[in-house]
Design goal:
Strand content: under 5%
Mean pLDDT: 84
Shape: elongated
Number of domains: 1
Oligomer: single chain
Low-confidence stretches: none
Order of helices and strands: HH
Number of helices: 2
């Protein structure tokens, strides 16, 4: 049970930032090739939405 909890935490800690970066990068590539369109907008909005789930880094 404890191992499954740790495994889930590690997957979320790694997968969510990679998904955010991938969606943002893919949106940039699509927009560079085809210009601003619905797909690039959805990818950017999805990345911004997922970014909201991560706590902001504290500045000193």
């Amino acid at each position: 049970m404890f191992v499954a909890l740790i495994r889930r935490f590690v997957v979320v800690a790694v997968a969510v930032p990679l998904a955010i970066a991938g969606a943002r990068k893919l949106g940039d590539v699509v927009e560079a090739r085809r210009g601003p369109n619905r797909v690039s907008n959805v990818l950017r909005q999805g990345a911004a939405f997922l970014q909201g789930f991560r706590p902001a880094k504290k500045r000193r």
